[in-house]
Amino acid sequence: MMKKKNLQMLLICGALLVTACKSKSKEEQQSGYRMEGDTVQITDRFLSEKIKVAEARLEPYSKEVITSGVVRPIPTRYACIASPFAGRVTKSYIQIGQQVNRGTPLFEISSPDFTTAQKEYFQALSSRELAKKDLKRKEDLIKNGVSSQKELEEAQNALLIADKEFENASAALEVYQVEHPENMTLGQPLVVRSPISGEIIENNIVTGQYLKDDTEPVAIVADLSEVWIAAQVKEKDIRFINAGSSLDIEVSALPGMVIKGNVYHVEEAVDEDTRSIKVLSVCDNSKKHLKLGMYTTVHFLSAPIEQIQISESALLQGEKDSYVYVQVTPDIFVRTPVKVEATKDGFAVINEGLHPGDKVISEGGYYLK
């Protein structure tokens, strides 16, 4: 009885094995390939014709780092105009949006402080002229044996002191940007001039207004033909960015438009709150598309390096990773996991998993999933 049961079990197992083999053979015939582990063998000629193979090639690739940025003025092209002293505005020469050159009059202001500086200048000028005349007279007298050497030296010292006082008085007027002070009229108002060339982007000057010496700036002149883009770059990406690197700027207000720029400076310190590094870039703004304070999307591009690239259609997605099929023989392929750096314009940049010259299935890999 026991032998009979064992014989029945063997017959059942054999039948199951034959059924499994037939099922596997039938499945293979239907799919057109045989898979063992990560190795796939194409067994059907029609399936083989559907699959295309291409080489993995080394191509130049620039790492792209995308972050946000803010439009800022370039400090040397931006000037806040404030009154140099307390006084009353007597005249305004400008209006908002006006183009000015360096030295262009902006407004006039009358002040006792400026009048005092004028008086000191004219007194120093007069004292110097008198000291020069006295020295000349002493030199003539000593030639004729009338004056003493001591009197000559005293006159020389007096002229040195007068020269120094005149230099100090002239320097005081330079603070007020007074040109040709010798042509001044005592009591005339001060003309405040633009220190740079640019556009009046803010004008709060009111004729008759009294300005204190600590008053906020009353006008702003800026040359915005070029601007800075201040961007925050994460620590892990800063190695891809260097001074002179190129970048593309996108602004939500200008969809589809790309503005070019170059990295000007990478700061040496990390912001401890955000763990990022500020990167300043110079960007052309001759068409005035970029406004101060505007938010932008910045695409930094590193210097090109050779990296393996394949068709994006060659990539297949598994449960945990991306993979491709690498050709070993015309009909045999091996599933190979890869690390993808980026995908762009129909190509995938591969960091790990492939070597230059590897042949991979570029189209039709999904038939083998």
UniProtKB/TrEMBL annotation:
The keyword Coiled coil applies. Residues 138-172 form a coiled coil. Residues 78-221 form the CzcB-like barrel-sandwich hybrid domain. It comes from the Bacteria. The keyword Metal-binding does not apply. Keywords: Coiled coil, Transport. It holds the Pfam family Beta-barrel_RND_2. Residues 226-301 form the CusB-like beta-barrel domain. Belongs to the membrane fusion protein (MFP) (TC 8.A.1) family. This is Efflux RND transporter periplasmic adaptor subunit. The lineage of its organism: Bacteria, Pseudomonadati, Bacteroidota, Bacteroidia, Bacteroidales.
